[in-house]
Amino acid sequence: MSFYAAVIHPFVEYGFMRRALIACVALGIGSGPIGVLLMLRRMSLVGDAMSHAVLPGAAIGFLIAGGLSLPAMGLGGIVAGLIVALLSGLVSRTTVLKEDASFASFYLASLALGVLVVSLRGSNIDLLHVLFGTILAIDATALYFVGAITSFTVVTLAIVYRPLVVECFDPGFLRSVRGGGAIYHVLFLFLVVLNLVASFQALGTLMAVGLMMLPASVAQLWARTLPVMMLIAAGVAAVSGLLGLIISYHFGLASGPTIILVAAAAYCLSLLFCPSGAVRRLFPARI
Amino acid sequence: MRQGAVRLNDVSITYDRLLAVQGITGSFEPGSLTAIAGPNGAGKSTLLKAVMGELSLSSGSIERGTSKGSRFGYLPQAAEIDRHFPLSVADTVMLGMWGRTGAFGGVSREAARKGRDALQSVGLEGLERRHIGTLSAGQFQRVLFARLLLQDAEIIMLDEPFTAIDAGTTRDLLAIVKRWNGAGRTVIAVLHDFDQIRAHFPQTLLMARRPISWGSTETALTPENLLRARTMAENLHGHPPGEGFAA
Ligand SMILES: Nc1ncnc2c1ncn2[C@@H]1O[C@H](COP(=O)(O)OP(=O)(O)OP(=O)(O)O)[C@@H](O)[C@H]1O
Ligand SMILES: [Mg+2]
């Protein structure tokens, strides 16, 4: 199979592949930097919990709209995600329960609730779509939705970059200069939820967080400064989207898991070849 | 003389049900140089955070006098900052200009020059572009001092600034502390080294959850008071405070 047939042809031939590609690249540009910040805040698990929390909201949107409707499901997901974000903040502040335990309980409950709600009305196919995503469903509306979220994310990150970074690095300092840490924390959680919701149509609710965390882990292995980390994460996420789409197209695989597996492969390769990786340790440079 | 002492009236602070600081009364006078001493777990860091307004009091009150935004500068205990965060030395120091740049403002040429001056006064010129994770503990402490220099705060609170820092760096940083104090700023430092306190700090608050003594260092650090601190320390560690043993 020629390069053209393998890589270019699917996109020339099919509109849904072009839309999927644009969606994936946009998702990567938003999710990558968000993932880096999540990781630096040691909130990977929070991202996980939120991605599950989005599910019941999306499912209720699904019920109300009577089918796979991105605006309805997206709105439901955003509302549900925000509720869980605020609740878990409250729980970890007011009880002795360890943070990860309270998040684990939250997302197990959310997952069960979401699956239950979808199965009330929808078919098993619908359930699969919600859980694992489907590139076929990405229409023009979905594309605008994803594009809007990515644009909003990038612009917001650019504006609140400094306070967000400081709140992450040294929250005590931000409080000591009356910088208002809590607002930025909430804004950041809002961005996380938005990006998870944007991802779930292409990747499914279960996989959406993968597009945040895996590219971020790759970036952390290669870069030492935050801006470079964010660029690498966005790049890895976008390229994983492209390669994942191509592979899933040729082999008839589900797109979400394939994209995440490509990102996971990038992570494994990075573990081997990054500056502090296994290969450099075993074979020190001879120069 | 600046007005506005920080006055503590019968301050108590609890974490959940754990009583960390109990019944502290006294004041940090404007322009004073005070050491806070006491065993581990005595509530020293807790007290500093409460003075900054970061923790709420369970009883009592703290008067902070005129309260402008940038009045307090705070150096956290080393373990509280994540040094592996991907920031450069220059970026970290420039955070001290927050009072002028705020969350969104740009960094002027003038501000950048001040940043370089600050780095120079802590002896780190030329390291601007280094990543903070690659610094030694002492170099990182110097970076945090440079940030405090830029902050231009009236009241400067240092939580164990010289722990795990070598003699040379300690000397340099102590000189900065003295310069702050000479310029009329109030400096409060948590320290464990009594010789250092006697040599450089005129005022001392000795505490072990409850106050033991607060006043001039000579009268505060008498052998009897130190002995009391040690006995109370055994209570701190041996039994959860607040359960029995309230003498
Ligand atoms: N965030 C927290 N939550 C619950 N308890 C805390 C918290 N921080 C401190 N404590 C408890 O409060 C008491 C006082 O702690 P603090 O950190 O103020 O002591 P310290 O005097 O600074 O000790 P050290 O010399 O070890 O730094 C200790 O018993 C500690 O276990
Ligand atoms: Mg302490």
UniProtKB/TrEMBL annotation, chain A:
Q: Which residues cross the membrane?
A: 20-40, 74-91, 103-122, 142-161, 182-200, 230-252, 258-279
Q: Keyword annotations for this protein?
A: Membrane, Transmembrane, Transmembrane helix, Transport
Query: How does the entry describe its membrane topology?
Result: Multi-pass membrane protein
Q: Which InterPro entries match?
A: ABC_BtuC-like, ABC_TroCD
Q: Where in the cell is it found?
A: Cell membrane; Membrane
Predominant location category: membrane
Q: Which family does it belong to?
A: Belongs to the ABC-3 integral membrane protein family.
Under the heading PANTHER family, the entry gives: ABC-TRANSPORTER METAL-BINDING PROTEIN (PTHR30477), IRON TRANSPORT SYSTEM MEMBRANE PROTEIN HI_0360-RELATED (PTHR30477:SF13)
Question: What is the protein's name according to its record?
Answer: Zinc/manganese transport system permease protein
Automatic annotation (TrEMBL), chain B:
Q: What GO molecular function terms would the record report?
A: ATP binding
What the entry lists under Pfam families is as follows: ABC_tran
Gene3D superfamilies, from UniProt?
A: P-loop containing nucleotide triphosphate hydrolases
Q: Which residues form the ABC transporter domain?
A: 6-234
Cross-referenced InterPro entries, in alphabetical order? Answer: AAA+_ATPase (IPR003593), ABC_transporter-like_ATP-bd (IPR003439), ABC_transporter-like_CS (IPR017871), Metal_Ion_Import_ABC (IPR050153), P-loop_NTPase (IPR027417)
The UniProt keywords, alphabetically, are:
ATP-binding, Ion transport, Nucleotide-binding, Transport, Zinc, Zinc transport
Q: Classify the source by domain of life.
A: Bacteria
The UniProt entry's sequence similarity note says: Belongs to the ABC transporter superfamily.
This chain belongs to which protein, by name?
Zinc/manganese transport system ATP-binding protein
Q: What is the organism field in this record?
A: Rhizobium herbae
